[in-house]
Automatic annotation (TrEMBL):
SMART domains: PKS_KR. The keyword Hydrolase does not apply. Keywords: Oxidoreductase. The keyword Oxidoreductase applies. CDD domains: SDR_c (cd05233). This is Ketoacyl reductase. It comes from Rhodopirellula baltica (strain DSM 10527 / NCIMB 13988 / SH1). Residues 36-206 form the Ketoreductase domain. PROSITE patterns: ADH_SHORT. GO terms for biological process: steroid metabolic process. PANTHER family: DEHYDROGENASE/REDUCTASE SDR FAMILY MEMBER 7B, DEHYDROGENASE_REDUCTASE SDR FAMILY MEMBER 7B. Gene3D superfamilies: NAD(P)-binding Rossmann-like Domain. Pfam families: adh_short (PF00106).
Protein backbone atom coordinates (compact mmCIF):
# COMPACT_ATOMS: atom_id res chain seq x y z
CA UNK A 1 0.00 0.00 0.00
CA UNK A 2 1.41 3.40 -0.91
CA UNK A 3 2.13 5.91 1.86
CA UNK A 4 -0.62 8.16 0.55
CA UNK A 5 -3.17 5.35 0.59
CA UNK A 6 -2.12 4.36 4.14
CA UNK A 7 -2.53 7.96 5.24
CA UNK A 8 -5.98 8.25 3.61
CA UNK A 9 -7.12 4.97 5.25
CA UNK A 10 -5.90 6.10 8.69
CA UNK A 11 -7.59 9.50 8.25
CA UNK A 12 -10.90 7.85 7.20
CA UNK A 13 -10.74 5.45 10.17
CA UNK A 14 -10.00 8.36 12.53
CA UNK A 15 -12.91 10.38 11.17
CA UNK A 16 -15.27 7.40 11.43
CA UNK A 17 -14.11 6.93 15.04
CA UNK A 18 -14.91 10.55 15.86
CA UNK A 19 -18.38 10.32 14.26
CA UNK A 20 -19.24 7.10 16.13
CA UNK A 21 -17.93 8.43 19.48
CA UNK A 22 -19.90 11.65 19.02
CA UNK A 23 -23.09 9.70 18.26
CA UNK A 24 -22.60 7.53 21.40
CA UNK A 25 -21.96 10.56 23.62
CA UNK A 26 -25.03 12.37 22.26
CA UNK A 27 -27.21 9.29 22.72
CA UNK A 28 -26.05 8.93 26.33
CA UNK A 29 -26.92 12.56 27.07
CA UNK A 30 -30.29 12.57 25.31
CA UNK A 31 -33.48 12.93 27.34
CA UNK A 32 -37.11 13.25 26.36
CA UNK A 33 -39.29 16.28 27.07
CA UNK A 34 -42.21 14.46 28.72
CA UNK A 35 -42.88 16.14 32.11
CA UNK A 36 -39.65 18.18 31.92
CA UNK A 37 -40.02 21.50 33.75
CA UNK A 38 -38.92 24.15 31.27
CA UNK A 39 -38.50 27.92 31.71
CA UNK A 40 -38.64 30.00 28.50
CA UNK A 41 -37.87 33.72 28.66
CA UNK A 42 -39.39 35.61 25.75
CA UNK A 43 -42.02 32.87 25.44
CA UNK A 44 -44.89 35.25 24.62
CA UNK A 45 -44.19 35.60 20.90
CA UNK A 46 -41.69 34.87 18.13
CA UNK A 47 -39.11 32.12 18.56
CA UNK A 48 -39.87 31.62 22.28
CA UNK A 49 -43.51 30.86 21.48
CA UNK A 50 -42.57 28.56 18.58
CA UNK A 51 -40.28 26.62 20.95
CA UNK A 52 -42.99 26.53 23.64
CA UNK A 53 -45.50 25.07 21.16
CA UNK A 54 -43.10 22.28 20.21
CA UNK A 55 -42.43 21.53 23.89
CA UNK A 56 -46.16 21.56 24.71
CA UNK A 57 -46.71 18.96 21.99
CA UNK A 58 -44.00 16.77 23.56
CA UNK A 59 -45.48 16.85 27.06
CA UNK A 60 -43.24 19.39 28.82
CA UNK A 61 -44.44 21.57 31.70
CA UNK A 62 -43.77 25.15 30.66
CA UNK A 63 -43.14 28.49 32.39
CA UNK A 64 -43.03 31.50 30.09
CA UNK A 65 -42.14 35.09 30.80
CA UNK A 66 -42.04 38.44 28.97
CA UNK A 67 -42.90 42.03 29.88
CA UNK A 68 -46.23 42.38 28.04
CA UNK A 69 -48.99 40.68 30.03
CA UNK A 70 -51.52 40.65 27.19
CA UNK A 71 -49.13 38.74 24.88
CA UNK A 72 -48.26 36.31 27.68
CA UNK A 73 -51.94 35.57 28.36
CA UNK A 74 -52.59 34.89 24.67
CA UNK A 75 -49.55 32.61 24.43
CA UNK A 76 -50.48 30.74 27.64
CA UNK A 77 -54.06 30.20 26.44
CA UNK A 78 -52.77 28.71 23.18
CA UNK A 79 -50.30 26.41 24.98
CA UNK A 80 -53.01 25.23 27.40
CA UNK A 81 -55.28 24.42 24.46
CA UNK A 82 -52.46 22.13 23.31
CA UNK A 83 -52.71 20.34 26.65
CA UNK A 84 -49.67 21.83 28.43
CA UNK A 85 -49.44 22.86 32.08
CA UNK A 86 -48.35 26.50 31.84
CA UNK A 87 -47.14 29.22 34.19
CA UNK A 88 -47.25 32.66 32.55
CA UNK A 89 -45.60 35.30 34.70
CA UNK A 90 -44.82 38.86 33.56
CA UNK A 91 -41.23 39.80 34.33
CA UNK A 92 -38.54 42.08 32.96
CA UNK A 93 -35.35 40.00 32.75
CA UNK A 94 -33.29 43.18 33.19
CA UNK A 95 -34.51 43.33 36.80
CA UNK A 96 -32.90 40.68 39.03
CA UNK A 97 -35.61 40.97 41.72
CA UNK A 98 -38.42 40.39 39.23
CA UNK A 99 -36.48 37.39 37.91
CA UNK A 100 -36.08 35.99 41.45
CA UNK A 101 -39.85 36.30 42.07
CA UNK A 102 -40.60 34.55 38.78
CA UNK A 103 -38.21 31.66 39.45
CA UNK A 104 -39.53 31.30 43.05
CA UNK A 105 -43.03 30.92 41.66
CA UNK A 106 -41.91 28.32 39.12
CA UNK A 107 -39.92 26.23 41.60
CA UNK A 108 -42.79 26.33 44.13
CA UNK A 109 -45.33 25.21 41.56
CA UNK A 110 -43.15 22.75 39.56
CA UNK A 111 -40.95 21.65 42.48
CA UNK A 112 -37.77 22.31 40.44
CA UNK A 113 -36.55 23.34 36.99
CA UNK A 114 -34.92 20.99 34.47
CA UNK A 115 -34.28 23.23 31.49
CA UNK A 116 -33.83 26.98 31.00
CA UNK A 117 -34.14 28.52 27.55
CA UNK A 118 -32.96 32.15 27.50
CA UNK A 119 -34.75 33.44 24.41
CA UNK A 120 -35.75 37.01 25.41
CA UNK A 121 -33.97 39.58 23.31
CA UNK A 122 -34.27 43.01 21.68
CA UNK A 123 -32.78 44.53 18.54
CA UNK A 124 -32.31 48.19 17.58
CA UNK A 125 -31.51 48.98 13.94
CA UNK A 126 -29.89 52.17 12.64
CA UNK A 127 -26.51 53.82 12.02
CA UNK A 128 -24.01 54.03 14.90
CA UNK A 129 -24.61 57.81 14.97
CA UNK A 130 -28.27 57.24 15.85
CA UNK A 131 -27.48 55.00 18.85
CA UNK A 132 -27.38 56.36 22.41
CA UNK A 133 -25.68 54.93 25.49
CA UNK A 134 -29.16 53.86 26.61
CA UNK A 135 -29.51 51.71 23.47
CA UNK A 136 -26.26 49.92 24.34
CA UNK A 137 -27.22 49.59 28.02
CA UNK A 138 -30.66 48.26 27.22
CA UNK A 139 -29.26 45.69 24.75
CA UNK A 140 -26.64 44.54 27.25
CA UNK A 141 -29.17 44.40 30.10
CA UNK A 142 -31.67 42.37 28.09
CA UNK A 143 -29.59 40.17 25.79
CA UNK A 144 -26.70 39.44 28.15
CA UNK A 145 -27.43 40.35 31.80
CA UNK A 146 -31.04 39.13 31.38
CA UNK A 147 -29.80 35.65 30.49
CA UNK A 148 -27.30 35.79 33.37
CA UNK A 149 -29.97 36.91 35.88
CA UNK A 150 -32.20 33.96 35.05
CA UNK A 151 -29.32 31.47 34.98
CA UNK A 152 -28.14 32.65 38.42
CA UNK A 153 -31.61 32.14 39.90
CA UNK A 154 -32.09 28.73 38.27
CA UNK A 155 -28.65 27.25 38.90
CA UNK A 156 -29.02 26.49 42.65
CA UNK A 157 -32.05 24.33 41.81
CA UNK A 158 -30.24 22.49 39.01
CA UNK A 159 -27.16 21.95 41.20
CA UNK A 160 -29.34 20.56 43.99
CA UNK A 161 -30.93 18.15 41.51
CA UNK A 162 -27.56 17.21 40.00
CA UNK A 163 -28.88 17.71 36.46
CA UNK A 164 -29.83 20.59 34.19
CA UNK A 165 -29.75 22.14 30.75
CA UNK A 166 -29.42 25.79 29.77
CA UNK A 167 -29.78 27.15 26.25
CA UNK A 168 -28.76 30.73 25.50
CA UNK A 169 -30.08 32.06 22.20
CA UNK A 170 -27.28 34.25 20.92
CA UNK A 171 -27.00 34.96 17.18
CA UNK A 172 -24.78 34.77 14.16
CA UNK A 173 -24.62 38.52 14.94
CA UNK A 174 -22.71 37.49 18.09
CA UNK A 175 -19.97 35.96 15.92
CA UNK A 176 -19.75 38.65 13.25
CA UNK A 177 -20.87 42.28 13.74
CA UNK A 178 -23.34 43.39 11.09
CA UNK A 179 -23.51 47.17 10.44
CA UNK A 180 -26.49 49.16 11.78
CA UNK A 181 -26.97 46.77 14.72
CA UNK A 182 -24.12 47.74 17.04
CA UNK A 183 -25.86 47.47 20.45
CA UNK A 184 -27.21 44.08 19.38
CA UNK A 185 -23.81 42.88 18.15
CA UNK A 186 -22.00 44.00 21.32
CA UNK A 187 -24.56 42.31 23.58
CA UNK A 188 -24.66 39.06 21.58
CA UNK A 189 -20.84 38.84 21.45
CA UNK A 190 -20.91 39.23 25.25
CA UNK A 191 -23.58 36.54 25.56
CA UNK A 192 -21.56 34.10 23.42
CA UNK A 193 -18.54 34.56 25.73
CA UNK A 194 -20.64 34.24 28.87
CA UNK A 195 -22.47 31.18 27.61
CA UNK A 196 -19.37 29.32 26.40
CA UNK A 197 -17.62 30.08 29.69
CA UNK A 198 -20.62 28.81 31.65
CA UNK A 199 -20.53 25.59 29.67
CA UNK A 200 -16.91 24.93 30.60
CA UNK A 201 -17.56 25.48 34.32
CA UNK A 202 -20.96 23.84 34.71
CA UNK A 203 -20.24 20.55 33.00
CA UNK A 204 -18.77 19.28 36.27
CA UNK A 205 -22.22 19.79 37.86
CA UNK A 206 -23.86 17.76 35.07
CA UNK A 207 -25.37 20.95 33.69
CA UNK A 208 -24.90 21.30 29.94
CA UNK A 209 -25.01 24.80 28.45
CA UNK A 210 -25.78 25.24 24.76
CA UNK A 211 -25.01 28.47 22.91
CA UNK A 212 -27.25 28.74 19.85
CA UNK A 213 -26.16 31.10 17.06
CA UNK A 214 -29.04 31.29 14.57
CA UNK A 215 -28.91 33.56 11.54
CA UNK A 216 -32.08 35.23 10.25
CA UNK A 217 -35.25 33.37 11.28
CA UNK A 218 -38.79 34.25 10.24
CA UNK A 219 -40.25 34.76 13.71
CA UNK A 220 -42.27 37.80 12.60
CA UNK A 221 -40.20 40.03 14.91
CA UNK A 222 -39.45 43.06 12.65
CA UNK A 223 -42.81 44.69 13.54
CA UNK A 224 -41.71 44.88 17.18
CA UNK A 225 -38.02 45.67 16.60
CA UNK A 226 -36.78 49.25 17.08
CA UNK A 227 -35.65 51.49 14.20
CA UNK A 228 -33.79 54.80 14.28
CA UNK A 229 -32.44 57.37 11.80
CA UNK A 230 -34.23 56.94 8.46
CA UNK A 231 -36.47 54.43 10.18
CA UNK A 232 -38.72 53.63 7.22
CA UNK A 233 -35.75 52.74 5.00
CA UNK A 234 -34.11 50.80 7.85
CA UNK A 235 -37.33 48.87 8.40
CA UNK A 236 -37.65 48.21 4.66
CA UNK A 237 -34.21 46.57 4.20
CA UNK A 238 -34.43 44.72 7.50
CA UNK A 239 -37.90 43.28 6.97
CA UNK A 240 -37.28 42.40 3.30
CA UNK A 241 -34.06 40.55 4.29
CA UNK A 242 -36.00 38.83 7.07
CA UNK A 243 -38.54 37.59 4.50
CA UNK A 244 -36.26 36.21 1.79
CA UNK A 245 -36.24 32.40 1.61
CA UNK A 246 -32.64 31.27 1.46
CA UNK A 247 -31.48 34.29 3.45
CA UNK A 248 -33.89 33.75 6.35
CA UNK A 249 -35.10 30.42 7.66
CA UNK A 250 -38.38 29.06 8.91
CA UNK A 251 -38.67 29.60 12.71
CA UNK A 252 -40.24 26.18 13.27
CA UNK A 253 -37.24 24.41 11.69
CA UNK A 254 -34.83 26.56 13.74
CA UNK A 255 -36.72 25.74 16.96
CA UNK A 256 -36.51 22.01 16.21
CA UNK A 257 -32.74 22.23 15.72
CA UNK A 258 -32.33 24.23 18.95
CA UNK A 259 -34.32 21.71 20.98
CA UNK A 260 -32.38 18.77 19.50
CA UNK A 261 -29.07 20.51 20.30
CA UNK A 262 -30.29 20.91 23.90
CA UNK A 263 -31.31 17.24 24.11
CA UNK A 264 -27.85 16.22 22.87
CA UNK A 265 -26.16 18.58 25.33
CA UNK A 266 -24.26 20.27 22.51
CA UNK A 267 -22.01 23.30 23.07
CA UNK A 268 -21.99 26.05 20.47
CA UNK A 269 -24.40 25.37 17.61
CA UNK A 270 -25.04 27.13 14.34
CA UNK A 271 -28.54 26.63 13.03
CA UNK A 272 -28.32 25.39 9.41
CA UNK A 273 -28.22 28.40 7.07
CA UNK A 274 -26.30 29.47 3.97
CA UNK A 275 -25.26 32.58 5.92
CA UNK A 276 -23.11 30.38 8.20
CA UNK A 277 -20.53 30.34 5.42
CA UNK A 278 -19.83 34.00 6.23
CA UNK A 279 -18.34 32.93 9.57
CA UNK A 280 -15.97 30.49 7.86
CA UNK A 281 -15.00 33.26 5.42
CA UNK A 282 -14.43 35.68 8.27
CA UNK A 283 -12.12 33.19 10.01
CA UNK A 284 -10.18 32.61 6.79
CA UNK A 285 -10.13 36.21 5.53
CA UNK A 286 -10.74 38.57 8.48
CA UNK A 287 -9.56 41.75 6.77
CA UNK A 288 -11.44 41.08 3.55
CA UNK A 289 -14.59 40.43 5.62
CA UNK A 290 -14.19 43.83 7.31
CA UNK A 291 -13.86 45.49 3.88
CA UNK A 292 -17.03 43.79 2.64
CA UNK A 293 -18.93 44.82 5.78
CA UNK A 294 -17.68 48.41 5.35
CA UNK A 295 -18.98 48.32 1.77
CA UNK A 296 -22.35 47.05 3.05
CA UNK A 297 -22.40 49.86 5.64
CA UNK A 298 -21.75 52.44 2.91
CA UNK A 299 -24.94 51.48 1.03
CA UNK A 300 -27.21 51.34 4.10
CA UNK A 301 -29.35 54.43 4.89
CA UNK A 302 -27.43 57.44 6.22
CA UNK A 303 -28.26 59.27 9.47
CA UNK A 304 -31.33 61.52 9.16
CA UNK A 305 -35.03 60.86 9.48
CA UNK A 306 -36.05 60.66 13.13
CA UNK A 307 -32.39 60.67 14.23
CA UNK A 308 -31.93 59.25 17.73
CA UNK A 309 -35.66 58.86 18.34
CA UNK A 310 -36.88 55.26 18.36
CA UNK A 311 -39.80 53.87 16.36
CA UNK A 312 -41.16 50.34 16.35
CA UNK A 313 -41.26 48.44 13.05
CA UNK A 314 -45.02 48.75 12.75
CA UNK A 315 -44.59 52.55 13.05
CA UNK A 316 -42.01 52.54 10.25
CA UNK A 317 -44.00 51.16 7.34
CA UNK A 318 -43.57 52.36 3.73
CA UNK A 319 -44.41 51.30 0.18
CA UNK A 320 -41.60 48.69 0.50
CA UNK A 321 -42.75 47.11 3.71
CA UNK A 322 -45.27 45.64 4.07
CA UNK A 323 -45.31 44.62 0.41
CA UNK A 324 -45.20 41.44 -1.62
CA UNK A 325 -41.50 41.26 -0.67
CA UNK A 326 -42.30 40.87 3.02
CA UNK A 327 -45.14 38.37 2.68
CA UNK A 328 -43.40 35.55 4.59
CA UNK A 329 -42.50 37.85 7.50
CA UNK A 330 -46.07 39.18 7.70
CA UNK A 331 -47.43 35.61 7.76
CA UNK A 332 -44.97 34.68 10.53
CA UNK A 333 -46.05 37.77 12.52
CA UNK A 334 -49.69 36.63 12.41
CA UNK A 335 -48.76 33.04 13.39
CA UNK A 336 -46.45 34.03 16.22
CA UNK A 337 -48.48 36.53 18.25
CA UNK A 338 -46.60 39.63 16.97
CA UNK A 339 -49.69 41.68 16.09
N1 LIG B 1 -35.43 36.67 14.52
C1 LIG B 1 -34.18 36.45 14.12
O1 LIG B 1 -33.89 36.49 12.91
C2 LIG B 1 -33.10 36.14 15.12
C3 LIG B 1 -31.83 35.77 14.65
C4 LIG B 1 -30.84 35.43 15.57
C5 LIG B 1 -31.10 35.48 16.92
N2 LIG B 1 -32.34 35.87 17.35
C6 LIG B 1 -32.59 35.91 18.79
O2 LIG B 1 -33.65 35.02 19.10
C7 LIG B 1 -34.38 35.52 20.23
C8 LIG B 1 -35.86 35.61 19.87
O3 LIG B 1 -36.00 36.46 18.74
P1 LIG B 1 -37.43 36.76 18.10
O4 LIG B 1 -37.21 37.07 16.69
O5 LIG B 1 -38.39 35.71 18.47
O6 LIG B 1 -37.79 38.12 18.87
P2 LIG B 1 -39.23 38.70 19.29
O7 LIG B 1 -40.29 38.13 18.44
O8 LIG B 1 -39.07 40.18 19.32
O9 LIG B 1 -39.44 38.15 20.78
C9 LIG B 1 -38.70 38.64 21.83
C10 LIG B 1 -39.30 38.13 23.12
O10 LIG B 1 -38.49 38.59 24.22
C11 LIG B 1 -39.33 39.28 25.15
N3 LIG B 1 -38.52 40.31 25.82
C12 LIG B 1 -37.86 41.35 25.27
N4 LIG B 1 -37.28 42.08 26.23
C13 LIG B 1 -37.57 41.49 27.41
C14 LIG B 1 -37.28 41.78 28.77
N5 LIG B 1 -36.55 42.85 29.12
N6 LIG B 1 -37.77 40.96 29.73
C15 LIG B 1 -38.51 39.86 29.40
N7 LIG B 1 -38.81 39.54 28.14
C16 LIG B 1 -38.36 40.35 27.16
C17 LIG B 1 -40.46 39.84 24.28
O11 LIG B 1 -41.63 40.17 25.02
P3 LIG B 1 -41.87 41.66 25.61
O12 LIG B 1 -41.40 42.64 24.59
O13 LIG B 1 -43.32 41.71 25.90
O14 LIG B 1 -41.05 41.73 26.86
C18 LIG B 1 -40.71 38.64 23.38
O15 LIG B 1 -41.44 37.67 24.06
C19 LIG B 1 -33.74 36.87 20.58
O16 LIG B 1 -32.81 36.70 21.61
C20 LIG B 1 -33.05 37.25 19.28
O17 LIG B 1 -31.97 38.14 19.49
C21 LIG B 1 -33.35 36.19 16.48
Amino acid sequence: MSTLRKFATAAAAGYAGIVVTRAIVRRKRTFDWQNKRVVITGGSRGLGLVIARQLADQGARIAITARTEEDLCAAAAELRRRGAEVIAHPCDVRDREQVATFIDRVTNQFDGIDVLLNVAGIITVGPFESMTMEDFQSAMQTNCWGALHVAMEVLPHMRAAGWGRIVNIASLGGKRAVPHMLPYAASKFALVGLSNGMRAELKADNIFVTTACPSLMRTGSPRNAIFKGQHRDEYAWFSIGDSLPGLSMNAEAAAEQILTACQHGRGEVFIRSPLNVTIALQNLFPELTQEILALAASVLPKMGGIGRTAAKGHQSQSEWSPSVLTTLTEQAAIRNNQI
